[in-house]
Amino acid sequence: MNRRGFVAGAMAAPAALATPALAQGALPEIRWRCASSFPKSLDTIYGAGEHVARRVAALTDNKFQIRVFAAGEIVPGLAVADAVQNGTVEAAHTASYYFVGKDPTFAFDGAMPFGLNMRQINAWLQAGGGREVLQEFFAGYGMVSLPAGNTGAQMGGWFRKEIKTVADLNGLKFRVGGIAGNVLQKLGVVPQQIAGGDIYPALEKGTIDAAEWVGPYDDEKLGFNRVAPFYYYPGWWEGALNLSFYVNKAKWEELPQLYKDALESACRDSTIETMAKYDVQNPQALRRLVASGTQLRAFPREVMQACYRATFELYEEIAAKNPAFKKVYDHWRAFRDVQYQWFRVAESTFDNFAYFMHAQEQQRR
To answer: Does the predicted TM-score (pTM) go above 0.85?
Structure first.
């Protein structure tokens, strides 16, 4: 036996074991297509999907690459869930409430009227059991859903006429996303589900009377201020919008664990990144809009109260006939109750006092 050869081999073995799997080329090269629900012109919300793709590539030494396609490049923005489900694409970046027509349970993964703010929905999905309770629902559609971006609280939208009473909602043709349309139907609104890139022409031509999208930064880009003078707040239907990265379940299960971890990490990072960008961009955009003549209005308290009552009446009606919705709703509502108690004690008290004092100081200047 060659003793020197044996020793050299023994010494080399630990080094081989310690070499990262990627460096050994042990992991496969994977190429996915991701269909976005958003146009490229909306760099923040569309960019959240691109951010995921960039981070996944960086974390896997470019072995796992995801190419993002804007709404309409492969399928229309509101058809991306079907594309993932039937395997046309491996993934999609979207807002789950676009698909409440399939089942209102989808809304929990996006935004619920009079629901959770950004921190609360992030807590519910990441650490409060929200994703776990939604897993069974999404599995029924052959998908896995990962939180991947957030807009924070949204605005109430652009209106051709002022909203002074609940009666002013009757007959209003309003582009509004998700389950909020069902709530507003109870108050006489005619809801319209229109993808982001198609809203402006509908509002300009008078096909609709009002439209909401996200907030000042995106709304300014879409030009809504040029065709509707009144800008309302708050968007009570979206105290925060969680964006979702849908993955075909079979494709997810084929991924090596390292790639799953990389995708999970990239999606969490995108949530932080997207929220930070909106928090920087929205205040500046709102100032520009108001300076250019936009008339900022708060929804009257009477309208807010009517919408609140209609919201929870609707939830109870849906829960009574939809077991999937009821299962998630019971979990979501219990979490919401505890969160509201805590936020009223600390967060809300601090915020309201600080904002009040700041307003007083501004008036004295």
So the answer is: yes
